[in-house]
Amino acid sequence: MIAIIDYGMGNLASVEKALTFLNIDSIITNDEKMINKASHIILPGVGSFEQGMTNLKELNLIEILNREVIKNKKPFIGICLGMQLIMENGSEPKLCKGLGWIKGDVKLIENNKLPVPHLGWNRVYKKEFEFEEDKLNDNYYFIHSYHVIPKENVIETYVDYEFPMVASIRRGNIFATQFHPEKSQKAGLKLLENYFKSYA
Amino acid sequence: MLKTRIIPVLTFNGISLVKTKQFNSPRIVGNPIQAARVYNNRDVDEIIFLDIKAKEQKRKLNLPMVKKIIDECFMPISIGGGVETFEDINNFLRIGADKVIIKSKAIEDPIFVSKAVDYFGSQCISISVDVIQVNGKYFIFNKKNNIPLETFIQEMNNCKVGEYAVNSVNRDGMMQGYDLDLYKTVNQLTTIPVIAIGGAGTPEHFVKLCQSGFKGALAAASIFHFTQHTPQEIKRTLDFVKIPVRI
User: Fold this and answer.
1) How many structural domains is chain A composed of?
2) Helix (H, G, I), strand (E, B), or coil: what is residue B121?
3) Is A200 exposed, middle or buried (0-12, 13-18, 19+ CB in 10 A)?
4) Which of A17, A95, A184, B225 has the greatest number of C-beta atoms within 10 Å?
5) ipTM score assigned to the predicted complex
């Protein structure tokens, strides 16, 4: 059973729907017992960083998540805001502390040429300066105005938005994506399927 | 590189899918749930679903039915129709909408939009901008047609909304091509993402808008209802002329 953390930040139903489609059991919850029992934890979410942290705090989830993910090393997926919240510092709308599992900050995308939010389908790359286009099916759906800047070696993929922006990170039991696999059609479903297969 | 999104629009009258011409004479074009299923199978980039009669008929969106539509989709979906309150927005988001489209309420009450952005986040608040051309100038389509496009967009920019869906009333359902000047004007007024809607009748119309320098997504309805062209085929046409799309 996979626990999808319910902390009042956005579209949890889509994550549940994607897992159901893949025949993976999940539950949307903020109950400590359910989170303790779960085999994996998913922290989705859209919205503001500060509000996200406030909600986690009010629901007493910070301590539970720290224990399950950091101490007990339970496999964890952060999606979009759920990726940003595991960093040390956020800045939306003002400077505030995150969960701090990964060293680094979350900052506003500063880009004079292209619109912010970064919204739509974009291809992810393994290396920072590998920008040549190809036809691989690795376009994912992004919608975000802030991006993570890790200060440790955790970056798995980048996305090109006039500069190489971090698209996903991985460290031990922690995996997180700035894009929405649950909204990324076949490519996203495949990514989730492969992820959970690796634990089968 | 960010891909140019091609978005089918489903307009609904409370009972079935309909397609209008210049916002008039709705013609019945099918079942929304079936349509959503087909578009999901065709791997489209995104879907827009609008109940165009909710406001006029003073009713709320049929949430159980819209949920069935959303359940068919593994891509982003924007929902609009009769949004008046935070509860409406919350209801749409709860059944799985990614973006909520606000129209009349945004014209009547910009402060509502501003508050909604603060509460729900700009990424999920889209504004439907229906534009009518009168004597060569662009106005927001309402009973009086007296709000200049520029004034409205600036007001919404200040509210920090997440996206604009800009419909050309003159071009709606005519299948004669997008209003290139309109989207040039809109691109100059905002840096927020824009979706162009209204007028596409052939794949070449999509190419023309992209090649005019327009930055944003392209949406259409009639071409998908009344011709053999599919979103995938349009993307292949765009790809052929080196416009970045997700294939």
Assistant:
1) 1
2) coil
3) exposed
4) A184
5) 0.90
- Partners of B43 on chain A (C-beta within 8 Å) are 185-186
Per-residue pLDDT tens, chain A, 200 aa: give them.
999 999 988 778 899 999 999 999 999 999 999 999 999 999 998 888 999 999 999 999 999 999 999 999 999 999 999 999 999 999 988 899 999 999 999 999 998 788 888 999 999 988 766 665 555 558 999 999 999 999 999 999 999 998 999 999 999 999 999 999 999 999 999 999 999 998 86
B3 to chain A: nearest residue by CA? Answer: A121
Chain-chain contact of A161 with B215 (C-beta, under 8 angstroms): no
- Inter-chain residue contact A119 with B121, CB threshold 8 Å: no
CB contact under 8 A, B74 and A188: yes
Q: Which domain holds residue B42?
A: 7-240
Min CA distance, B76 vs chain A (Å)? 6
CB pairs below 8 Å between A and B: how many? 88
Which CATH number goes with the domain that contains B15?
3.20.20.70
Only one residue has tokens 């749409």, namely B92
Q: Domain span at residue A105?
A: 2-197
* Separation CA A80–CA A78 (nearest Å): 7
Contacts of B192 in chain A (CB under 8 A): 115
Strand partners, A175: A77, A170
CATH number for A140? 3.40.50.880
